Amino acid sequence: MPIKSILAVAVVTGLILLIPLIAMQFTTEVNWSPFDFIVMGGFLFVTGLLLDFAIRKAGKYRAAAILGILVLFLYIWAGLAVGIFTNWGS
Questions:
Q1: Whose CB among 26, 36, 53, 84 lies 3.0–4.6 Å from 32's, allowing a Cys bridge?
Q2: Residues 14 and 37 sit within 8 Å (Cβ to Cβ)
Q3: In this predicted model, what pLDDT tens digit does every residue of 2-27 receive, in sequence order?
Q4: Residue 30 · residue 23 · CB < 8 Å
Q5: Quick one: CA dihedral 32, 35, 2, 75, positive or negative?
Q6: Residue 87, Cβ neighbours under 10 Å: how many?
């Protein structure tokens, strides 16, 4: 994987993480710990790398690969954010 791709994913990850960081300065409703930033940063970075890989190498299944990665991202994000999938059946 080209170093430019890795750098681009890292920059976009950092820019996305600025959103909650800035929001924390203006409201108490956003309250992230350093651990939250580390976990979400790693999660976004890996997802970005997977998307970059799928765009480059998936061939005729590119759209399906990208959709699968995005659905998995949203599923895990919802579970991490509010535990939406851990309360099934209770």
A1: 36
A2: no
A3: 899 999 999 999 999 999 999 999 99
A4: yes
A5: negative
A6: 8
User: Residue 21 corresponds to which tokens in the numbers above?
Assistant: 């960081």
Q: Write down the pLDDT at residue 72.
A: 94
Residue ranges of the alpha helices (H) in 1-90? 3-26, 34-57, 62-82
Exposed (0-12), middle (13-18) or buried (19+): which is 25, by Cβ within 10 Å? exposed
Interatomic CA distance for residues 4 and 20, integer angstroms: 26
pLDDT digits (tens, 9 = 90+) for 30-73: 899 999 999 999 999 999 999 999 999 988 999 999 999 999 99
Cα separation of 34 and 49, whole Å?
22
Length of the chain: 90
- C-alpha pair distances (Å), 65 with each of 44, 53, 70: 17, 10, 9
Backbone angles phi, psi at 85, to 5 degrees: -95, -5
